[in-house]
């Protein structure tokens, strides 16, 4: 396995990333993303693996709040009531990515990278949703650090959760 500078840049183990893509490919499973705070970085890291075109269906960068509803199907009442940074938004982003892109797995991320709060939510709060065949999970994590560190940590956590859930689906 050669170096993967993009995986290294965000602190993702290149061999584990290649194993994830290889496992999904072996199972004929696909993945799509709907990303807010990571701005497409999860999809970029996934597609940095040779052969990932058999696995990655696509991704939605839904940085602007209205696009979370318009492109990923997040309930507009949820967004109005709780804002864009909420665990249920991450869950609906994951479902929206999966359905919109016709994938086996959907990964959704929302959070606050900083340096400032958003809607009273501190930087470093990240909600990750993964949905797939008969399984869905949302994880809320806190990541200390600057904007880059929060985003990188969110990518690593999202890929870790996807890997965990995909491994359980044999």
TrEMBL record:
Keyword Transmembrane helix: no
EC numbers: 3.5.1.42
Domain CinA C-terminal: 19-164
Domain of life: Bacteria
Gene3D superfamilies: CinA-like
InterPro entries named among the record's database cross-references: CinA-like_C (IPR036653), CinA_C (IPR008136)
GO molecular function: nicotinamide-nucleotide amidase activity
Top enzyme class: hydrolase
Keyword field contains Hydrolase: yes
Pfam families in the record: CinA
Keywords on record: Hydrolase
Protein name: Nicotinamide-nucleotide amidase
Source species of the chain: Actinophytocola algeriensis
Lineage of origin: Bacteria, Bacillati, Actinomycetota, Actinomycetes, Pseudonocardiales
